[in-house]
Amino acid sequence: MLKQWRNLNSNITASHGNSPNYLVYTQPRNSPVQFQKIQLKQLQLENINDLQTSDVCDAISVSSLILKLSSSRFTFDGIFKFINLTELKIIRQPQVQISFDTLSKFTTLHTLILNDCNIEQLDFMKNFSSLRILNVSHNEIRTAMHIFKLKQLQDLNIGYNQLENVQGLENCVELITLNIEFNKIQTLEPLKDLRKLKELRANSNQLHYITVISNFEELTFLDLSDNKNALIQLKNKKIQKLLLNNTIISSNISNIPVQELWVNNCNLNSLQSIVQQNLRELHISNNNISRDSLQTLKALKRLKKLYCSNNPIIEYQHELSTCKTQIFTEDDQPYPQEIITTAEQYQNAEIHVLQKQVKLMQAQINDLVRMNVDLQQEMQKRVQKESELMRLVKNLNIELQQKK
Q: Which of 44, 76, 47, 91 is nearest to 63 (CA)?
């Protein structure tokens, strides 16, 4: 057991085993943990085998507890000595099996983090009426039905599970942040009344026709990426960051004043229906955006960063080099804004910069050749027009002479 607490501050880590970072000495062989009366606010216990009621005394002041578990069998009986606990985070080793039945009686928690704890059911938390923040990501959860009583919940992360629907979340009307990414969800309709949502991560699911998003009038962050069969219609006016990678964009989203837009791998041929003047950052890689969209991009006066690898338009990116926009291509390095003109610049330049400079110069040469051809064609047209004009003048003069 812990021998003694000496000169410890309000934030402290206790561990079985000696370490220069800890001010706590323990007996060997991983003996049970005991606490003497001390004014702790945050406590982290590492390599804990068990937490029996008899192991804990006078932990009244602790409000935040992190448990790093190492035992293959762990019980939480001793947790009830932390009578003012409002935040609990449990980190387990892969081999640790946890029974959460004891936690179902611990109803004063405001924050509970149980990610990657091999959880299959959430029935143990149906009485957590005070819970504000819940993270149960990276588990094996198949249903969220037991969350429906958590009506004060504001932040929920239930991503990386086995959910096929969101039934049970419709009563969590205080939710501000919701993460349901990497599940098997097909519809978001049960969420239609969650009108306080500001952040929604629903990427990598099996969503189809999506219209309920328009109900979330306070939404500022939305990720619907990797829902390959989804038909997305959006009307939200407050979204600042929008991610629609690898989706089908079925409607005009240029009326949404986003500042950051991700539409990689969306089979896009044009940008007119997706961009607007507020854009600061645009990701359009792996599409079929051509030179026809150059003028659209040049009109984006506030655009600071453009990611456009694997598009025909990158052959003409030098035409954007006069803009203030940083252009990123396949290696996520900004395209050079200026041509290298001095030996010193050449010596200090990296290889990838020089390669881009060569591409830039080649592209400019091609442009000059094309401009020369266009100019010659235009000159020929002018000569033809002048010849035609001269012929008309001559004919007019002949007609005038005949009339006289």
A: 44
Model pLDDT for residues 261-283, shown as the tens digit of each residue: 999 999 999 998 899 999 999 99
Q: What is the DSSP letter of 334?
A: B
CA–CA gap between residue 311 and residue 328 (Å, rounded): 12
Mapped onto helix, strand or coil, the DSSP state of residue 44 is strand
Question: Which of 140, 75, 153 shows the shortest CA–CA distance to 112?
Answer: 153
One-letter amino acid for residue 124 of the chain: F
Name 134's bridge partners. 112, 156
Q: Rg for the chain (alpha carbons), in Å? A: 32
Among 360, 343, 225, residue whose Cα is nearest residue 283: 225
Quick count: other Cβ atoms within 10 Å of Cβ 398?
10
How do residues 58-86 score in pLDDT, each as one tens digit? 566 788 888 877 665 666 666 777 778 89
212: DSSP letter: G
Classified as helix, coil or strand, 300 is: coil
In the chain, the amino acid numbered 314 is: I
